[in-house]
Amino acid sequence: MNRPTNGRSISKSGITLFELTFLGTSASAPSVHRGLSAQVVSFRDQRFLIDCGEGTQRQILRSGLGFRRLNRILITHGHLDHILGLAGLLSTFSRWEALEHLEVWAGAWAMERIRDLVFGVVLRGARPPLDISLQVIEPGVLFQEGDLTVSAFPVIHRGPGCFGFQFEESTRRPFLPEKANELGIPAGPVRRELVSGNSVTLPDGRVIEPGQVLGPERRGVKLVHIGDCGSTDNLYEFVEGADALVLEATYLSIEEELAAQFGHLTAAQAAGFAHEANVEQLFLTHISRRYREREILAEAQEIFPRTSVARDFDHHIIRRSEN
Fold this sequence. Notes:
By secondary structure, this protein is of the alpha/beta class. The chain has helices spanning about 55-65, 80-85, 85-95, 110-120, 175-180, 190-195, 235-240, 255-260, 265-275, 295-300, and strands spanning about 20-25, 40-45, 45-50, 70-75, 100-105, 130-135, 140-145, 150-155, 165-170, 200, 205-210, 220-225, 245-250, 280-285, 305-310, 315-320. The chain is built from 10 helices and 16 strands.
């Protein structure tokens, strides 16, 4: 989980794990080096855009990610620095014909603003160039496909209907190739059946049960993303033990009162929460222009050393912690 890596990561078991790409890491307004809030989470062939600040379409192009399969957008809350980029992104989709269907997920208040932006401004009086589905978020599971579950949970910030997101890989029993070799199980479909939990009959008549070649059950990877946040009091149960946590750090402790007034966290508060929740890695984003990056990093690492301050276009592979 180090600062940028190129290409797709394959685990020792041959399975692609979570990839996290930061497209915009600034708070409230862009700076020369930081765009507005947007991140992409990838798991195998599934991709999710989290938030869509102004200029996100250009950041996607600059990152090299491209638009294909980027058909699910999760919005943490309805403040303009997290949704205005939807206008340009939809305009680009209509010209590039990269998608046939787009899902936008947001809380009720945020969805009112998004609906006005999409249908009252971008598409006013025009036929949508693609199938657009606007889904109002309720706490709980949003998607459950294959080995991936994506859930939403409430977050305290300014205004109603703010959410964070959990990305969790299913619990699994790892395949033990050394055991399969000892039993003389040939590579290919037979092993795949065992990995799927099915017994198989070998050509010599022996019946092999999955438990003979599968190791102890182990949890999957857990990535948690939280947007703007004024309090972590209700978040422990959703974050505990995460392999990676994305969390804001808009202020330093010297302005803790200002942070509370505007519903944000300090770097020290974010780091303290990561420590309490026993996460493996903390990525800080939503960085104010008033501070130097090294100031944010120093304050956080004093409390939680496994902290990184995200920069635009950072790319990370999120693997399961061995702890």
